[in-house]
Amino acid sequence: AVKYNDIPIIQMIKEDSDICIKHMEDILIKQLQGQITLAQCLKSVGLLRRIGTYTDTQLKVKFLQVRTDWFRGIIDNINKGEIQYFMCKMIDSYRVNLFDIITQYRSVFIEDKATSLIFNSWLHKQVEYFSRCVERQSTSM
Questions:
Q1: Which helix H or strand E contains 1, and what residues bound it?
Q2: What's 98's DSSP letter?
């Protein structure tokens, strides 16, 4: 496209393909923002890698951000009325969903010493969030 940049039809095709690529990227990110199987996750991240918008490190961060948003939405929607119910649901949600996210991340990305800090920091934040939720709920009794 650079070689024939002065030809209007080539410019139009490039612009249209850029729009399609952005749309596909948005769809793939949206898939990661919901309940997703490991196979779907592998496919979505694999396609995002091929699109090439993100570096591997940026893709790791983006993955953890969108999965965290989905996970926090689940936690925030738990009925906080009765503490025993809330605690059971929250613990169960952490057990199931956090395990899924960790499994997905470790299956999709290869960790090295330079980028393991991203995952470790993210995991630490999830534990802190759990502690804050428990503390808030117990003080509201």
A1: none
A2: I
Higher-confidence position of 131 and 134 = 131
**Alpha carbon of 18 to those of 4, 30, 51, 54, 59: distances in Å?**
16, 18, 10, 15, 19
Q: Give the whole-angstrom CA distance, residue 111 versus residue 15.
A: 35
To which residue do tokens 């738990």 refer? Answer: 78
Give the span between the Cα atoms of 81 and 140, in whole angstroms: 10
pTM (two decimals): 0.85
Q: Rounded mean pLDDT of 69-85?
A: 88
Residue 87: alpha-carbon gap to chain centroid: 24
**CA 100 to mean position of chain CA atoms:** 12
Which two structure tokens, joined as six digits, stand for 7?
Answer: 């030809």
